[in-house]
Amino acid sequence: MAQDVTGTEPDDEVGMESIEGEASARLLPQDALLRSVVEPVGSATAERSLGDDVVRIDRSDLAAVAESAKSAGFNMCVDVTAVDYKGVRRTRFEVVVNLLSHQHNRRLRIVTAVPEDDPTVPSLVSVYPGTNFFEREVYDMFGINFEGHPDLTRILMPDDWDGYPLRKDFSVGEVPVQFKESHQVQ
Amino acid sequence: MAKPVRNSAHPPSPTTRSDLWVAGTEEPDWMVASTDEGAQEMERDEPQGRSVEQRGTRVVDDFVIDDSASDDERMIINMGPQHPSTHGVLRLNLELEGEIVRRVKPIIGYLHTGMEKTAETLTFLQGGTNVTRMDYLAPLHNELCYSLAVEKLLGIDLPPRTLAIRVLMTELNRVSSHLVATATNGMDIGAISMLLYGFRERELILDFFEKTTGLRMNHNYIRPGGVAADLPDGWEDDVSDILERIPAAMDDYEDLLKENPIWKGRTQGVGIITEEECLAYGITGPTLRATGSQWDLRKSQPYSGIEQYEFDVVSGTHGDVYDRYRVRIGEMYQSLRIVEQVANSMPAGDYTTEDRKVSPPPRSRIDESMEALIHHFKIYTEGYKVPEGEVYVAIESPRGELGCYIVSDGGAKPLRMHTRAPSFANLQALPIMMADSLVADTIASIASLDPVMGDVDR
Predict the structure, then answer these.
(1) Structural domain contains residue B10
(2) Cβ atoms of B282 and B424 closer than 8 Å
(3) Which of B416, B423, B428, B453 is the best residue to mutate to test the A interface, defined by the most A CB atoms within 10 Å of its own CB?
(4) CATH of the domain at B261
(5) Is B283 in contact with A130 (Cβ distance < 8 A)?
(6) What is the CATH number of the domain that holds A142?
(7) Among candidates B303, B389, B420 on the partner chain, residue whose Cβ is nearest the Cβ of A50
(8) pTM above 0.95, yes or no
């Protein structure tokens, strides 16, 4: 039943083949569509996770891989989110982009690691305009900056909020008064 | 006195002032400029680039005042968050020129309660109580999406009756949600009767939900591993009653609205969005299908065995408010069609998985079996552990693609639970729909988008 959601492929590794002639032999997926996404971007690697296609990249290549995914037919960016791996992984954050192709009826997840000391990734708004709100939400909740975003402001929290609520070091119930400006006389 | 002339094709008439001159009653310049026909007349043809920016894929939503218009004509008003037609606490920053909306910026967050943060403090079993409160008009879809994601991480299979019950309940929920959408859409445009009718028929479904789950909303009925309880005795009669009365009532709605000239005048050609814009902005659901797209996750990426049942994808042509209303009406008929098939072919068997590590044992077993008692105790205290991994699952909620992204670190609580809320993404359609439309039409556009603020803000 669980397989019904994203197709019936088995959960094994993507068939990989190495390209001869390159200085450093790179593993590329055999699947033609995935390969066309991964091949133009130097740092991209593809894998399968629980039936989903996942592409991992360096964060500087995020816009490049989004471009190549869009030209490969992934015409919709359904979701951008982030995960805080504080205390779990060495690189603290991960930005996760979920793409969807109507034409191929497939999904693709792009994952990139973002370090704590420089939480910046390139914005995808120029490639997928719909990432506007999602990137603002990630900025609001995790404090990850999207370079090139036209309006990177808080979207869910009040503008004067301190901290980033979905970070693991932001505890539940930490802030006693929500709108601290409201008691000040103008 | 020189009046500002914006359109040289229509120079102000020199005879507009009164012939009888009384000292001290002449209008000051600002009043003439702001109330005279010459100043209020809008240019239909805009300077190159601006409307492209608004309608195309580059919506710039920071307010930069265009110097070519004087301050008298241009104003920024806030609609909401307490406006009754914004369906909750949506606030819109509207930049108006006279009665024409030039730019729109949706401002959200008034209902933000940090549900994604809360989810990290709840076990996977408790998580259902959290997600069901997000989209409060389609709680069962939220539960289903969350449960599918957890089950995918767990790698468990479910008995056929569970799947059928889930399809039955979610499709009924789709009808009840679309009933509210159509009802409030009618109310916002002035068809108050539609509000009363829509909510009246919704009660039938909510009564059935109450009988089955114990609650009218926020059911926590669909849980990882199955559903909370079997369908109640006599459910067939309730469902057949719903299947009899709702289509009959919907025929009344068709008489009321389908060919109603006022309704058509208010909705046709209003709030238009194209398929290309929908794809660019991640807009899904009835809004996308009203543009002519056939994309429906129930067909393309079916879940919970919904592919066994026959139904059609309803789509429109023009992508306007009227087509969205037609798509919702059509989807209600199709959902009732699915419900009828499920009711006629409901398999016998268990309503939850037999895996006692996930699904608590029946109450009667606890008195007899030591293992059952242990399982019961473990599930309700520390919860069950979910294998490490990350998963994204999407279903077709009444508002579009509802996704759930769960990261598990192998414990009993998720490391991260993110909901891809369809209303949140769909709100990005508002600047496209509303640019260069009338203020009165903003209401129609919002209503046709059917945003649920609980879903937007989470």
Answers:
(1) no
(2) no
(3) B416
(4) 1.10.645.10
(5) yes
(6) 3.30.460.80
(7) B389
(8) no
